[in-house]
Amino acid sequence: MILGCHVQMKAPLFLEGSVKEALGYGCNALMLYTGAPQNTKRRPTEEMHIKEAQALMRENGMDMERMIIHAPYIINPANSIKPEVQELAREFLAFETQRTSDIGAKYMVLHPGSFTTTDLETGIRSTIDCLNTVHYPDNVIVCLETMAGKGSEIGFRFEQLAEILEGVNEPEHFGICLDTCHISDAGYDVTDFDAVLDEFDHVIGLDRLHVIHLNDSKNVRGARKDRHANLGRGEIGFDVLHAIAENKRTAHVAKILETPYINKKPPYAEEIKMLRSGIYDPKALEALEE
Ligand code: FE
Ligand code: FE
Ligand code: ZN
């Protein structure tokens, strides 16, 4: 199983520290923001210990495809109302995809955005226009994330993402990140993951799926809330999430945990152990509460 989680990137070791953190949890993949997710302040890549991080990845048999970058969520390409928001999205998309390339990573996850006060179709057009202002670095693939449909989010149906993929000028630079919490919240029945994959294949194409976010959901199917839960502590449940992690059709795709900290402690070592063993251990999570 290719399993990873969201890790930090902070002084003094930066990316090297991120890889170390992931290895400490038993991960063989990882995902990180190259700065705070809610702002656009970014440290120069020269200071990020890239060479050391790449060496550590190599020593542990991890291809750089398994280091996934998440774009900051303040980028909102679907906002066509505020020119400054659109301008920031364009600038930052170019900047962050270049940084992804500098790091040597391949996949950059991006939320397709929220249409705010316009409508779904206008939002989708705005996102396509924004994505088409950038010329993408050779090895980088922007993975549009499947969203929960909270508020005015776009991209909560596979059809909406397919429309974006059909509208971009450089389609070879785009793929999809599927988030289990989000698609369940959006109404998909993840208890039959093969049926979800069939539908994904029919509407988008399974070859476009490059990242899976493996999260439980605090809410029932169709709630459109986007509140992640620890594995087995939500409405999806451990057995369903374990079956998704084990599904052979997506065996080559990294599954990244974005589950909440418990009592300010990361739950990832425990959750990854449960996924690898297939045995749900609620006591291991409870122990973190002490
Ligand atoms: Fe995300
Ligand atoms: Fe996600
Ligand atoms: Zn989410």
Average residue-wise pLDDT? 97
Number of strands: 10
**Low-pLDDT stretches:** none
Terminal Cα separation, in Å?
30 Å
Detailed description of the structure:
- The chain is of the alpha/beta class and 290 residues long.
- Helix content is 37%, strand content 14%.
- It has helices spanning 15-24, 50-59, 83-103, 120-131, 158-167, 180-186, 193-203, 238-246, 268-277, 282-288; strands spanning 3-6, 29-32, 67-70, 107-110, 141-145, 174-179, 209-213, 216-217, 228-229, 254-257.
- The strands form 2 sheets. Strands 1-2-3-4-5-6-7-10 form an 8-stranded parallel barrel.
- The longest helix has 21 residues, at 83-103.
- It is globular.
- The two termini are 30 Å apart.
- One fe (iii) ion (FE) is lined by residues 70, 109, 111, 145.
Short description:
The chain has 290 residues and is of the alpha/beta class.
Features:
290 residues, alpha/beta, 8-stranded parallel beta barrel, two-stranded antiparallel sheet, 10 helices, 10 strands, 37% helix, globular, binds fe (iii) ion, binds zinc ion
Helix-strand blueprint:
Blueprint: E1 3-6, H1 15-24, E2 29-32, H2 50-59, E3 67-70, H3 83-103, E4 107-110, H4 120-131, E5 141-145, H5 158-167, E6 174-179, H6 180-186, H7 193-203, E7 209-213, E8 216-217, E9 228-229, H8 238-246, E10 254-257, H9 268-277, H10 282-288
Parallel strand pairs: 1-2, 1-10, 2-3, 3-4, 4-5, 5-6, 6-7, 7-10
Antiparallel strand pairs: 8-9
The protein binds fe (iii) ion (2 copies) and zinc ion.
